Amino acid sequence: MKVENGNMVNTLKQQKKSEYTIKPGDKVGIVGVPPLSVISKLSETGAVIFDLDEPRVKADMELTSNYLPRVYCAILRTVVLNALHLELDAVFIDVGPGKCDCAFHVSTVLQDMLNIPIIRTRNEDKKGFGYPLCRTKMSLFEKMQQITKGVQNPFPSSPDSPPCTPTAGFWGVPPRDFSLLNLFPCTTHIYGWTRCMENKTPADTDLEAVFNPHVPTIFFAQSFCAKTALAKFLAAKHPKGLYLDVDVTCSSSTGAKIQAFLELNGVPHAPC
Amino acid sequence: MLLADFGTSYCKFLDLGVEGAKPYLIATKKLQKNLRVDLATGHNGKRFSDSYVNELTALARGGEELIKAPDYVLLDCGSRDIKYVSYKGGELDDMGWNSECGASMGFTIELLERYYDLDFHSLAVPDRTFSVTCGVLGMSHIFDAVTSGISEAEAVARFVKGIAINAYRFAGSPETIYLSGGMCDNPLFVGSFPCRVITLGRYALIKGLEITARKHLPKHHERTKNTE
Ligand code: SF4
């Protein structure tokens, strides 16, 4: 908004009245977990889905500083970086209780930045699809990849192996830098919003707050995300919890912190 | 079995192959390039050994051995970074490692002592302090203060106090801090903490390595002596 002759003027582009019709082969970006109805439609139509929350282009994050403050959630800075480089036909961005206010504001930025339909969704789906990947024995990196990939289809996940007994816990959102996941053993169970993601109920705050008090757990949040408060709160409630926030990349001292925490709590790094 | 904590300014060694051996110190710049040890920690440790224990683990294990209280905060202030572990009821409760905002604290303090030809043993703890977040950024406060007529000694003392307060807050502002690392030998720094400080000296991480070697390594690892 700016003030002109004493009147407020909206300088934002009008949101394209989105009678957007998905066509086969359309390149569609998604942010967060759009409602099942949207994912089903995209999948049925044969659109090519790009998860904009994940790093998809090799470009300098600094390029986003014209659009977002440098001190901002790295996932959403990644969204903007991806959107700047991928030639998309439309973006579905979840801005409801299943994502965050920051995403809502980024949708405004995207509307102004791109000349394509930016469609805001509010995913309040209640039907749980289960979270077997969160509990299976598999490298945490691989588990996280499969869970985030699963957002792009309307089906429940079905890992090959059954649930394992957990030796450690990872609570939180999928990190911007997956490399930190390599520090955890394969018997790490996933909790928090990532579990809600696999369950396809991203607004399920009760499920998000679940943790296992019997296993040492890292409570992770992206720096500058509102979920840092919940992560810190739950870490303090957990008998063996450690709060951790990471911005764009995991520094060596943060990596050492994870390693030391697991080691000192007697968590073996068992091979998968 | 030779253990070493490879720090930025000094490296600490302990030879478990020699009965009753005490830990000793060598300046990092005097290290032989081909040196090999059996178990290492510290930011240079991986260069000198195939077996590495991360610094927080070494600090925590050292603290568990050296501190008898069930609840405590152990803060290690080195040349390059600061780190802490806190225990409640004898269990690990929290930890932190700051190599960004804690950057170069100890190193900068040592440089300033030499540059201004000061002796930290004879400087009184000042009433006032600078708001210092890291060694590098805090230096401009000193230059500004000196330009405004404050003595070099007073300006450096305020800087050191600022760093101590920053480290204290980083460790969670406890009533008592167990302090380890090279900064234990700096009375101005130790006296600048706004809480009770119990110094443990430079060898807390070496103690942690010793505990790792004795209790946590598989038996085949316990070679008696490194021949280097
Ligand atoms: S990490 Fe937090 S701020 Fe970032 S997109 Fe997710 S919910 Fe929003």
Strand order of the largest sheet of chain A: 4-3-5-6
Overall mean pLDDT score of chain A? 92
- CATH architectural category of the largest domain in chain B: 2-Layer Sandwich
Radius of gyration of chain B: 18 Å
- Ligand roster: iron/sulfur cluster
Give a description of the structure.
- The complex is a heterodimer of chains A (272) and B (228).
- Chain A is of the alpha/beta class and 272 residues long.
- Chain A has 2 domains: 19-121, Rossmann fold (3-Layer(aba) Sandwich), CATH 3.40.50.11890; 133-264, no CATH class.
- Chain A is 30% helix and 17% strand.
- Chain A has a 4-stranded parallel sheet with strand order 4-3-5-6, with helices on both faces.
- The longest helix of chain A has 13 residues, at 101-113.
- The radius of gyration of chain A is 19 Å and the shape is globular.
- In chain B, strand 6 and strand 7 (91-98) form a beta hairpin.
- Residues 222-228 of chain B have low confidence and may be disordered.
- In chain B, helix 2 packs across helix 7 (204-216).
- Chain B has 7 helices and 9 strands.
- Chain B has 2 domains: 2-54 and 204-227, Nucleotidyltransferase, domain 5 (2-Layer Sandwich), CATH 3.30.420; 58-201, 2-Layer Sandwich (Nucleotidyltransferase, domain 5), CATH 3.30.420.40.
- The radius of gyration of chain B is 18 Å and the shape is globular.
- Helices cover 34% and strands 22% of the residues of chain B.
- Chain B has 228 residues and is an alpha/beta fold.
- The chains are: A alpha/beta (272), B alpha/beta (228).
- The structure holds iron/sulfur cluster.
Please write out the topology.
The complex is a heterodimer of chains A (272) and B (228).
Chain A: E1 2-4, E2 7-9, E3 27-31, H1 36-45, E4 48-51, H2 74-85, E5 90-94, H3 101-113, E6 118-121, H4 140-150, E7 168-172, E8 188-191, H5 193-199, H6 205-208, E9 217-222, H7 227-237, E10 241-246, H8 252-264
Parallel strand pairs in A: 3-4, 3-5, 5-6, 7-8, 7-9, 9-10
Antiparallel strand pairs in A: 1-2
Chain B: E1 2-6, E2 10-15, E3 24-27, E4 39-41, H1 45-48, H2 55-66, E5 72-77, E6 82-88, E7 91-98, H3 105-115, H4 135-147, H5 152-170, E8 176-180, H6 187-191, E9 196-201, H7 204-216
Helix pairs in contact in B: 2-7, 4-5
The complex binds iron/sulfur cluster.
